[in-house]
Amino acid sequence: MVRKDHGELGRIAGLERENAELRLFRTVFDMAAEAIMVTDADNRILAVNPAFTVVTGFEMSEVVGQTPRCLRSDIHDQAFFEHLWAEVARQGRWEGELYNRRKTGEVYRAWMSIATERDDHGHIRRHVGIFRDVSEARDTAEKLWHQTNFDPLTRLPNRSLFLDRLLQALVQAGRGNQRAALMFVGLDGFKNINDTLGHTIGDKVLEEAARRFQGALRKGDTLARFGGDEFTAVLTAIDSVDEVERVGRALLECLAEPFLVEAHQILISCSIGISLWPGDGEDVEALMRNSTSALGKAKEAGRNTFRFFTPSMDARAQARSRLASELSDSLEHDEFTLVYQPVIDVPTRRTAGAEALLRWNNRYLGAISPEQFVPLAEEMGLILPIGDWLLTAACREAASWLPLVSDPLRIAINVSPRQVQQGDIAGALECALQATGLPPELVTIEITESLLLASGEEVLRKIRRIRDLGAKIAMDDFGTGYASLSYLKHFPVDILKIDRSFVAGALAGGEDARLIEAIIALGHSLGMKIVGEGVETDEQMNFLAERKCDLIQGYRFSPPLVSERFRDFVTRS
Fold first, then answer.
1. What's the rounded Cα separation, in Å, for the pair 343 and 351?
2. pTM of structure
3. Sorted alphabetically, which NCBIfam families does this protein's record hold (predicted)?
4. What stretch of H or E contains 213?
5. If you average pLDDT over residues 66-85, what whole number do you get?
6. Residue 300 — pLDDT band, cuts 50, 70, 90?
7. What is the residue extent of each domain of the chain?
8. CATH 3.30.70.270 holds for 153-328
9. What pLDDT does 233 receive?
10. How far apart are CA 143 and CA 149, in angstroms?
11. What class does CATH assign to 336-572?
């Protein structure tokens, strides 16, 4: 009988222990609930466990020798994987979520850990990737988060999420040294809809109101359903209170059209309370309290309106609201008139024509400055009908001048940029000329320098159509838009009007004087006529005359005149 020495017995025992450990590791590898993938230093797959097949659908024989690219979903870009492997190289491991693709093509979300094994010399021996499918868990978490933070009926943020977003908006506004506004919106008489038509109809009204409110807000604003028939909105990056007023009016106006719900035609309005930050509260609770208070004032005022919490802001807003209400009826009540400022021919000192200026005299509020009502008309979309009226009225008045003098008088008519951008300005002018019989060559349409600087091909096409009718184009207030003088050759302009601010400073002999000289010289070289505005003294008149300015206007000759007095001015001059 051969007896084994102790050394050999020790080696056998060691091998048995190693085999037992390998069997244990193999059992763990095979029975692990998480997918395991082992790759070599070149990232070629050496082995996968059964859980890998369960998760991915790939058998071991299909992936051994391949790279893990067979699992890629193509959702992540190359930069994602470059960062992943850079982390593995730097730290020896990476852990995170990524999208993979099963053998069937289905994309799923996986939570993966990648570790690197190195030999005694620090060289990579293999990588071990362990991952699990977390799609269902993530979907469940997202659904739970959505249910917790969003209103199930309107799909808007609910009260909890809105308060969080309001706090974030205030923090961002503070960091950016900006203002924010909180609007509390309550539907007027909504309880009657529920009581008379039922909650199903009421719910559909809420859904439609939410949709309309969202369309009325600016991009970046947050709307939420606060509860019941109450909505809230936070406005960020506010430049002026006028911007808040515009949004408030948009919210009121978006409910003007009846709601059509299951054969029911429903009319509903809303009331809005507004608080501003900073000023109306230093925290979320104070802003909410004050906007709610302002909402109560809006309802007390008769509903279908908005109120600011700050009395001074509210008074200003209500004044603008009253002005807007009166402006909407101004044409119907024939409240607009025109006055005419004479334009003088410099060489002869005779009247060459006039600039028509719009005036509004409201039956309740009296005379309203154009600086107040013209921007409001543009904002309300009334500038197009008002502009059409102005064109016809000015052309009719100019046609009445034809018998007054042997040399026909020209009429200059200012048009709003929005008339050109949004309307058919050439078509409106053509209608005015046909209705009044005024020859088109006696009409000058005045546009702003800023309109041409910001214009596209469509605007230039409209301006060329005006010239095709036979009318002239004047660039008003030239020099205030900071355009290069050489830029003029690209525009269809016949007349340049030197801004009154340059004329006022011309006698000082500084930059204003040099700029006027340059405008006149360049304009003449391009075949244009030059008009000097705001001439109030003989010295200013002589300055422009010496530099060959063609036409001038201003209080040195006459303020704007009503039609009868303008005719007297013409016959006397």
1. 6
2. 0.56
3. GGDEF, sensory_box
4. helix 199-216
5. 89
6. confident
7. 14-138, 153-328, 336-572
8. yes
9. 94
10. 10
11. alpha beta
